[in-house]
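Exercise 7. Predict the structure of Cbb3-type cytochrome c oxidase subunit I from Sulfurovum zhangzhouensis.
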Amino acid sequence: MSSFYHETQTVFGTHKNPILQWIFSIDHKRIALLYMGVMFTLFFFAVGAALTMRAELFSPGSQFLEPQTYNQLFTFHGVTMIFLFIVPGIAAALGNFILPLMLGARDLSFPRLNLLSWWLYILGVVTGLSSLVTGYGFADTGWTFYAPYSIRTDAHVLSTLSAAFILGLSSILTGINFVVTIHRLRAPGMSFFKMPLFVWGLYATAWIQVLATPVIGITLLLVILERTLGVGIFDPTKGGDPILYEHLFWIYSHPAVYLMILPGFGIVSEVLPVFTRRTIFGYHSIAISSASIAGIGYLVWGHHMFTSGMSDTARIIFSFLTFLVAVPTGVKIFDWVATLYKGSIILATPMLWILGSIINFTIGGLTGVTLGALGADIHLHDTYFVVAHFHYTILGGVIFMFIGGLHYWYPKITGKMYDEVRGRIAFILMFIGFNTLWFPMFLAGYLGNPRRYFDYLPAFTPFHQIAGIGAIFVALGLMLIVYNFYRGLKNGKEAGPNPWRGTTLEWHIPSPPPLENFSKIPYVDFEPYEYKEGEPLVQFDENFRRVH
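Solution. The predicted structure, encoded as tokens:
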């Protein structure tokens, strides 16, 4: 095993205790692995909650859950998935590990701030889950905490609100660290348009973290003040305005969707050129579209509120902007498909996940445009159509991309290879299971099945039972992924520095990377995706000098 697992830098110097070496490490790679360990533990708890709800919904009527328990369960699922897994997700985990390697840097700009971000994340996790341990039960508001219900409910909402506030602070610090690192620590010669596209995705994400997250932090703090001090900001009985809460919440939460997806887009743009053995099509348009999505994404929050009450003029403007934000996303998909055209496609496990994510996300994006149309949204609002759209975007898109990135960089992170056959079987189970689970919900929602309900009319039974079967396949696929990664770590063959024959800088150093990544900072006088006759055009010798 590489020295990376045995050497570290900590805020207090050298520790002999291995636990203290990890939790006080300022090495970006160890902090990334700490994020991954906690995040995926919480992810599987959230998946367990989802499977429990799906079992309850297999037949109409009460099976084994009470309505209040069901409400708390879907709140736990939503809060855990959104605030504890997907929002920090790719950026805090893979971004922390890969960003300095791609830039040719030895660490992030502020290693101690990076460690503080992780500790704030842990504080948020503990705060959010404390009500489960103390016996108060979880919040029952859903992950949106809509007022005035979040102000009046007897459920234990304060700990969940406080946790989201703390997690927001962690996210802001991570965003600041990434922005400064990208501006100040790029390798000599690496201009902005020589950066890998994953870095572009993280850069756009970081600005959303810095600029949008304070809005949700202030909003949640106002709800905490309402519950504790009785100030009437959102409570209509005290002169407050609950619609104001919706505006403030979605001003953050719609950009947060792009905060989740932009790093995933970056992963797609990394994997495609490697497994087509060709330069990516439209590098500049993909890079600029990431910044465009981040910018336009601030302006479209109102499409969540077409049925909440706003002027017809505002509805038309928000509908237009919703269609507009689809344009740079469509540019990316066009460029990805063009990269595949006449490429030497290698259907390795990472490539399968990326192709599956493009298919799923395209369905999610097209149904999102449907919801952006005023007439359609009035009919489909608060139905399972919206839930299916959201899961096609986030689970079928973001999480598929995340898993694809984990498979792609697994050899770099661990120095070992997983089993390709098991990896492909896991993808097939997940892809079939996911579409069997969520596509029927489009039909159920179109026919009027409302979301968030503990029960449903018997006419919707076939849709929920088909979805229940799909959920079993998803669970099997996830378990096989975990088993495959575990077996790879224990018994996998040595990966070497560049098993995929990638072109970006992380593939030119040992796997796993040593403590400070680079023995010598490289000079970058080449594009990030240069292939010639299917082989990487750029090579380095053992002293990290470019071989011409």
